[in-house]
Amino acid sequence: MRLPGRPQLVLGLMSGTSADGVDAVLASFQPPLARPRWRMLNHCFTPYPSDLRAQLIAVGQGEPLAASVLLDLAEAVSEAQAECARHCDPGGRAELVGCHGQTIWHRPPQGDRRGASWQLLQGPLLAQLLERPVVFDLRAHDLAVGGQGAPLVPAADAALLEPIGGWRAVLNLGGIANLSLLPPARGPERHRPVRGWDCGPANSLIDLAVSRFSQGRLSYDEGGDWASRGVVREDLVQRWLREPFFQLPPPKSTGREDFGLPDLERRLQQLEQRAATAGAPLEPADALATLTALTAAVVAADLRHGPRPLELVVAGGGARNGMLMDQLRRRCRGLWVRPLAELGLDEAAREALGFALFAWWQQHGHAGCLPSVTGARLAAVMGVRADPTL
Q: Which fold has domain 8-149+351-386?
């Protein structure tokens, strides 16, 4: 192991619920462990091939697949991770890799039943392909001690972002929306624990609806332009906010299991019924506008139940959706809503940077999960390490 005071180059790899591809970040970390000195050296994104993405989305929504197909998928995901890693670090400078893999099913704890989460990846294969140690399976230890296993990135947010004079909220808008609430730098609440949870759908339902309405020609609503031409059906948004998941208190986590194609079909049916009552067919733009508004409304409702932040910093692909950002500003009145890029960190790089940090923490035996976020009984060192055979 390296001397504790020296910086180390680590590569982080992340593919989220949107299953659109892999983000990679090359970063350096230097102690102290709890609040490291860090620098991001490179960031790149490699899209999944369209057929691989379609298969991953299908299995993530419960479509049964033969074991042989799942095995092929795991190998394809591992090879895609390796390709992105090579683009981000062509000189092979990273000494360690942290890789999230591709979530295909997430089951939060319920009652006496522990939670479980499946991130598709062949860790030893990735280590061999990159000729570097790989830390993977980063949710399992938190789940084993009673946690949700998600969201994990609030711990990284607290370590990597400088605190401000009040609470700061960091919102990730990937396939699923999740929040980090970071305590202030000063005052009586500075020692309060970090909080965080999954709010509900972000881009998962919007992307599926775009694909349906465009007959597969489009995979997302670029800039929110299509939705911006529609009318929000606010009565449905308010009805949906009363659904059980949105009423659950933290800790809570979710995924495509709850907010995938069957959920979209149910919501579109309700939208169609509403349009028929008005004597008109459902306009795709109206459906997209309403789904986009739902994402913002869920976040705004959740923020009313915790400590009141001064600002809402937005990361993930949804930060580039103009209508979604407008909806957030309208519904989160009194908050400064701005993209993470204004803090000097690309909104698409945050999670990959976090998983690089988790790998670095794992190497040094530092706990990476926060019981205040996941509900775990204790903080655990996260991840399993695979070393290449050279």
A: Nucleotidyltransferase; domain 5 (3.30.420)
